[in-house]
Target: SIR2-like domain-containing protein
Amino acid sequence: MTSTLPASLVAAIQSGRCVPVLGHQVLDGVTDSNGKTIPADSDSLILAMNNGRPMAPKLMYEFPRAAMNIELKKGRKAVTRFLDTTYRDTAWKESDFHRQLAELDWGYLIDMNRDTQLQQAWSNKPHLLIVGVARIGGGTARYRLFQHDGSSYQAVDDTTADFSLPLLFKPVGTPLPESLYIASDADYVDYLTELMGGFGMPPALKTYREGCQYLLLGLKLDRDTPRMLISDMVYGAGNPAGWACINNPTGKEIKFLERQGFELLNLTHQECLAQILEVSRECCA
Model:
């Protein structure tokens, strides 16, 4: 395979400063034993949450808006119960993409999904899990820390966490080891406010990320919410800020990436990962 990866991306990977950022498209093709596809994008999540029925057009615009509607009608627990059933209690087949991604020695990854595929792929690997939380009582921090020893997670805090371990940041949540989610509009307003204020990630991570460069894989940026999250999470990025694999990008996505200092790659996320693996094997040969 002839690599078409930019030399700057290869250099960032080899130096350990490249941070993969996973969007919903990396879950394409993941199914349960009956062939049901995991809901990952906004539309599929809304339909799954509403028993397969479309909601009003203004609610179908984006999942947080629909989740806020359900929360107001049925309570916050109804949204949490849906996400637990979807991502904790349903047995999804292993994702080849996540398995291959886990073969590489990343120091820091950001997963913008709520599934557990990457956590399962790292189930035998010590790492530090950083999970976004919202609307908590007391304090301003909007994250929780869990350290994995290669067998199980233990809750830790900023003073006891080992930030030299590989870091997995799941800003919008995960069901493991605890059900913690950013889902409704109210969650996002609170979390984004604190993220912009510097309380959405640990101080050690804010130091670690300085000069990092980001590789967006399967992450659509055609809605305000993911754009706002990315803007704050990549603060202090290197030059270039990173690279993005986005199929058929919209004009709004292109402008956002240019403004943030990202280079658009003419590759799918699968093609990009395949080339990264090939480059990695050649380096190790």
Q: What stands out?
A: Residues 269-284 form the longest helix (16 residues). The mean pLDDT is 95.
